[in-house]
TrEMBL record:
Protein name: Disease resistance protein winged helix domain-containing protein
Keyword Repeat assigned: yes
Ranges for domain Disease resistance protein winged helix: 119-185
Source organism: Gossypium mustelinum
InterPro entries: Apaf_helical (IPR042197), Disease_R_plants (IPR044974), LRR_dom_sf (IPR032675), P-loop_NTPase (IPR027417), WH-like_DNA-bd_sf (IPR036388), WHD_DRP (IPR058922)
Gene Ontology terms describing biological process: defense response to other organism
Highest taxon of the lineage: Eukaryota
Keywords: Plant defense, Repeat
Single Gene Ontology MF annotation: ADP binding
Gene3D superfamilies (UniProt xref): Helical domain of apoptotic protease-activating factors, Ribonuclease Inhibitor, Winged helix-like DNA-binding domain superfamily/Winged helix DNA-binding domain
Length: 251
């Protein structure tokens, strides 16, 4: 959507009834009926999502396996703390709500694999096999006795991220990351003490970019640009990942 266009359409948030219906669809009516208090708490969770479909879907999927009222009480407590965050603007507030699905991933391995997907450009169709091979090369997966077993684990993780609505299935061989989910992933990486991403992928760069502290960067993606020369020597002692694909590199 282009700014200042006469035919722009404002996409409104869902009204409360439709919002709850969407949330119930993702959680499952069986879960909502597990305890008398869960339905009431679910209504409060939907209210915290402020009618944002993406928040309703991702948090709904995250809560689908939560069958006790205590788990639901904890969820609403977390979401209310997020809403009261000091971060200004709806965008950051939404990231905090969507981050709940990220926090619900079962282990750090899945979280690292998810964040890795944000290195690809916006709307990029990611080949599953390529992504899994990168994860293997980066040491993000378990140790395996053979390559086939490692690749199987990688595809299992992709399936888990799709189930959590953190990746979208494009076809049998490719996935992509929703723009807002990708922004959230980069925000999480930016807040991380372990990871320091420098991502300028798919932004039409023609020259080598600048960064304040190259020495802190752990993963860098400059793919899908128009860079021809990379001649400046960068001091990046902590760099583990460098994506330069789909450029016009000459030197």
């Amino acid at each position: 959507m282009q700014p200042n266009m006469d035919n722009n359409i404002r996409v409104a948030c869902l009204p409360s009834g439709e919002a709850f219906k969407l949330f119930e669809e993702k959680v499952g009516s069986e879960t909502l009926q597990m305890h008398p208090d869960i339905h009431n708490i679910a209504e409060a969770v939907v209210e915290e999502c402020a009618g944002l479909p993406l928040a309703l879907i991702t948090i709904g999927r995250a809560m689908a396996s939560k069958k006790t009222s205590r788990e639901w009480e904890y969820a609403i407590e977390v979401l209310r703390q997020s809403a009261a965050s000091v971060f200004p603007g709806v965008g950051k507030e939404m990231y905090l709500k969507l981050k709940f699905s990220y926090d619900c991933l079962p282990d750090e391995r899945l979280r690292s694999c998810f964040l890795y997907c944000s290195l690809y450009p916006e709307d990029h169709l990611i080949e599953k096999d390529e992504l899994v091979d990168c994860w293997i090369g980066e040491g993000l997966l378990d140790e395996h006795t053979n390559l086939s077993s490692a690749r199987n684990q990688g595809h299992f993780i992709i399936g888990s991220l799709i189930d959590a609505c953190l990746l979208e299935k494009e076809d049998n061989h490719r996935v992509k990351m929703h723009d807002v989910i990708r922004d959230m992933a980069l925000w999480i990486a930016g807040e991380s003490e372990k990871e320091n991403f420098f991502v300028k992928s798919g932004v039409q760069l023609k020259e080598q970019p600048k960064a304040k502290k190259w020495e802190e960067v752990t993963r860098m993606s400059l793919m899908d640009n128009q860079i021809k020369n990379l001649t400046e020597i960068l001091e990046c002692p902590n760099l583990q990942t460098l994506f330069l694909g789909s450029n016009d590199l000459k030197e």
